[in-house]
Amino acid sequence: MTKILAAVVQLQSTEEKSRNVDAAARLVTEAAQRGASFVALPELFNCIGRWEAVVAAAEPISGPTSQRMSELAANLGITLLAGSIAEQSEVAGKIYNTSLLFGPDGQQLACYRKRHLFDVDVPDKVTVRESEFVMPGAEIVGTTLPDFTLGQSICYDLRFPELFRALADRRADVIAVPAAFAFGTGCDHWEVLLRARAIENQAFVIAPNQHGRHTPTLQSYGRSMIVDPWGTVLATAADGESLALAELDFQRLQDIRRHLPALSHRRDGQ
Ligand SMILES: O=C(O)CCC(=O)C(=O)O
């Protein structure tokens, strides 16, 4: 198959897990009913807010949220990227920020843990120390699916082109960037970075984001997006909890790579 319909789900998650998972399931179901066969949820979709609350909500990989997502994927017959959840780690008081991929039979196909942690202090915009609560992941994850190869990243990873190049080296046709991208930086950087990563790696970029205020000091930018390998924005979510859908045409991807073979013009394998 050279074309599929993909969807990104935009949420305004809270610290209330059952509310968030229900909202996610409702929008994933709507996306599947509209014909999407690949649906992606944002970062920390099942619980976001104060870090203490996120850590307290952490689950093992095979916990209630992943079981619900696995059943959802199987019932709808779709491939589901469960954005990320807080995963219990071996270190007390710390989690992994973990993205799980489920196939249309409900099987877990991949697990990616956010590698780059958002420790920044940008005056008047955003101050965060994610590494106080989150352990960095070690692995780079690319998964070959029947229709395409998926590369995984999470949010702040977007600023590290070497990760995306490593995913391109694993032949990623689609790169997912589930996010709760800070409003303060998102206004200027979100779309530019997504489009740059798509253009330079000649891949579709699927970027479901959180939107709106989660706590008085935590606000996500929204504008969840699907970008094609030419850097064209194919779809953008409206503000609030919403969906954006777009067709991924893999023949167009191959044509772009053939006409403009920049990835094969790299010097010294870089
Ligand atoms: O890179 C940025 O500016 C935002 C990243 C972010 O919000 C996150 O990783 O949670």
Automatic annotation (TrEMBL):
Key words of the record: Hydrolase
Signal peptide limits: none
Pfam families: CN_hydrolase (PF00795)
Entries under InterPro entries matching the protein: C-N_Hydrolase, C-N_Hydrolase_sf, Nit1/2_C-N_Hydrolase
GO molecular function, one term: 2-oxoglutaramate amidase activity
Enzyme Commission designation: 3.5.1.111
PROSITE patterns noted in UniProt: CN_HYDROLASE (PS50263)
Domain CN hydrolase span(s) in chain numbering: 4-250
Superkingdom as given in the UniProt entry: Bacteria
Spans through the membrane: none
Name of the protein described by the UniProt record: 2-oxoglutaramate amidase
Protein source organism: Symmachiella dynata
